[in-house]
Amino acid sequence: MILSEDHSESLELSKKAQKRMLKMARLEERKIERRAKEKATRKEKKIKRAEKIAAGEQVSENEGAQKRAKLNRVKEPFAARVVLDLGFDDKMSDKEIISLCSQLAYVYSINRRSPNPFRSLLFTSLNGRTLSRLEKLNQAGYKRWVGTEWWSEGYDRLWVQTLEEFTPRDGEGFGDATSKEDWAKDNIVEKSPEESLAVPVSQNRVVYLTADSSEILEELREGETYIIGGICDHNRYKNLCLDKARASGVRAAQLPIGRYLSHLSTRKVLTVNQVFGILVKWVETRDWELSFYSVIPKRKFQDRGRGREPTDMDFPAKTTVMEEEEPAL
Ligand code: SAH
Asked: Transmembrane region positions (predicted)?
């Protein structure tokens, strides 16, 4: 019964859908072939290596060990926190949620591979379809991402709830401060960057990144917290993150793209992983221009007006959305 139902449904598939299914089947087949080839090559390498060892020859570390060593080589972390604000679950289509989750995986991978990773990656407001999607991916692989924290609560818990639980060191008290918040403002900022990641955050050390702010981010500082809006919206919502930043009383700033790539329009909206990639590259190089070009392919800036330098006239809409091809997981 079920079979015949399925059959009749497939008969009704449009030509386009049939073509798509065929293409997917072909891709899947190629993937299986590729995997089999890779497996055979690995096996061959293993045998050759064993032969060399048996013959008393010197061998280098195997590939897996080399990869692990590369990931674990001595790192110089940057003592700042990046928050991925996932509080926009209801603003995205299912497809956009899928893209966003790939971008999050990409963010994690960029940080893990960097010689100067951000010390803390915090994902806040994890709920709804974003949570379901992450649970499905790689058997909830996100739970095994090293050095990440996941909250179902919003990022304001950084200063609201933690502050409630927080008590100053023995004998210090709250001094002359009229409230705990006032006390925190004066005291927490003076702590070393490492320490300030472990205690409640004062709001004036938090920056929400958004292309809609008129403020420009000049540099990243240890001890500060940078929020990236975890949303893939194909530019439907203007000022979404800017309004949120204002409502939560934190600063907002845009990346200084315009300064280096002035032929672009005033608003340049990047994807989550592009923004994160730029931040990491800046930490590594302290050079914005280099960081932009290492993350956004140059051709993206030349999409319009092929064969000549683009001018402002090429971007009358005042918005350039630089959506990336979906990153591989
Ligand atoms: N409509 C959303 C745009 C989502 S783009 C909004 O209101 O911001 C995903 C996130 O990347 C943004 O929330 C922002 O944190 C970051 N971002 C994108 N382009 C940026 C830019 N030019 N400067 C700073 N942050 C940017």
From this structure: none
Phi then psi dihedrals of residue 79, to 5 deg? -80, 60
CA distance 2 to 84: 44
Residue stretches of the chain with pLDDT short of 50: 1-9, 189-191, 303-329
Q: What's the pLDDT score for residue 180?
A: 66
Terminal Cα distance for the chain, rounded: 38
Distance 129 CA to ligand 1 centre (A): 21
Distance CA 165, CA 161 (A): 7
- Structure confidence by residue, pLDDT tens digits, 119-136: 989 999 999 999 999 999
Residue 226 φ/ψ, nearest 5 degrees = -115, 125
Q: Choose among 149, 148, 146, 150: nearest CA to 71.
A: 146
Backbone phi, psi, residue 319, to 5°: -145, 130
**Exposure class string for 14-27: b at 16+ Cβ within 10 A, else e:** eeeeeeeeeeeeee
Distance of CA 44 to the CA centre of its chain: 37
Distance CA 247, CA 104 (A): 25
In this predicted model, what pLDDT tens digit does every residue of 179-192 receive, in sequence order? 666 666 655 544 45
One-letter amino acid for residue 100 of the chain: L
Return the pLDDT at 326. 40
DSSP letter string over 92-144?
S-HHHHHHHHHHHHHHHHHHHH-SS-EEEEEEES--HHHHHHHHHTTTTGGGG
**Ligand 1 atom nearest to CA at 241:** 7
Active site residues: 233
Beta-strand pair 267-270/319-322: parallel
Q: Per the structure block, which two tokens stand in for 97? A: 């949620």
SS3 36: helix
C-alpha to C-alpha distances, 93 to 44, 51, 138, 149, 321, nearest whole angstrom? 45, 54, 22, 25, 18
Q: How far is the CA of 237 from the centre of ligand 1 (A)?
A: 10
For the beta carbon of residue 205, count every other beta carbon within 10 angstroms: 20
